[in-house]
Amino acid sequence: MTDNGEHTGVDRARRLAALHGAERMLSASPFKERLGERLTRLAAEAADAYDLARWPDVYGDGVVAELERRVAELLGAEAAAFFPTGTMAQQVALRCWAGRTGGNAVAMHPLSHLEMHERRAYAQLSGLRAVHTTQEPRPPTAAEVRELEEPFGTLALELPLRDPGFLLPTWEELCEVVEAARERDAVVHFDGARLWECTEHFGVGLPELAGLADSVYVSFYKSLGGISGAALAGPASLIEEAAAWRHRYGGQLFQQWPAALAALAGLDRELPRLPSYVAHAKVVARALEEAFRAAGVPWFRVHPEVPHTHQFQVWLPYPAGLLEEAGVRFAEETGTWVFNRWSAAPVPGMSFTEVTVGASALGWTPADVRDAVGAVLERAAGLRG
User: What is the topology classification, in CATH, of domain 12-34+273-384?
Assistant: First the structure.
């Protein structure tokens, strides 16, 4: 707490202790389990996902090769390569395409993961440069792609576009954007870290969605509850080249069986559940709006109002530290966890958080959401007073 009484945040150890002790969770978090608990769960789930009597992998064979095969099959791709990080997978994909197209310009959104969360590695490591598709906080349109003033070799599309609110175009809009890129003689790469949960919004299966692009990157921990890791999928010749660059980038690890096992278990456990998470996210979003109105919050935003996936943003007119303190106190007192970390918004006094609706939230009714959120806001008002 500062000298003027403003709460600056909650100590990490205290926050994790409150999260670990929570018996009910609205917004899912990957940090609820301690190491021993995570290892125990991995051992139990992995036994159903892979034959544990087989030997650990060595430089990408065994369980890693099985994961690659399964991902390629799920996405309808010729081949797939496992990468230790999504950032590495993205950079390798863009580098390979630049060599094949002869163009070092990549069309991308200025709020994409490539720009916001990878330290502009595409420029620093591969000498590529960005051409921004639009300055609007939404996915680009086909007209914007067609009207870009300079040529580009690759169009990189993040599905969903996380930073502006996990936003997706319609299926028709996405097809039109891809076609616009083809008209510009460009290839299309999907940053599909969260591609798994997009099919409900588009109304198509994974092979049809992934088949729109020339290459697709997917994550194993953002939606599937894995430990780490990603895959790049596409034509066999591209994946063979990508594997060579993976080695050069330091991604040819001696053993990766824990991450690979967790990914296979996540595909078995979470992939079939994602449609139910996406559907329930709409219920939770409506209930949150009702809770904020009932509490008399002067201004708030649930964005998008109807979530496109099982994740969305919440904006409130309170400092982030105050909201975190109120939420942790509520969890400590009641064993109910509502929101994860809050971040300060560009406007002073405003904060936002990302809500992830997972298995832990499926049992929450709208009344449960309204009651819990109302109680957190009561504590926030008390702290502010």
Answer: Aspartate Aminotransferase, domain 1 (3.90.1150)
pLDDT of 347 over the 90 cut:
no
79 band by pLDDT with thresholds 50, 70 and 90: very high
* pLDDT tens digits, 268-283: 999 999 999 999 999 9
- Chosen CATH of 57-254 out of 1.20.1250.20, 3.40.47.10, 3.40.640.10, 2.40.370.10: 3.40.640.10
Note whether 181 and 145 are within 8 A (CB). yes
Who contacts 114 (Cβ-Cβ below 8 Å, separation ≥6)?
Answer: 90, 94, 106, 108, 120, 122, 130, 156, 158, 191
pTM value > 0.70: yes
Tokens at residue 335, please?
């064993």
Q: Contact, 166 vs 311, CB < 8 A?
A: yes
CA atoms within 13 A on the CB side of 150: 11
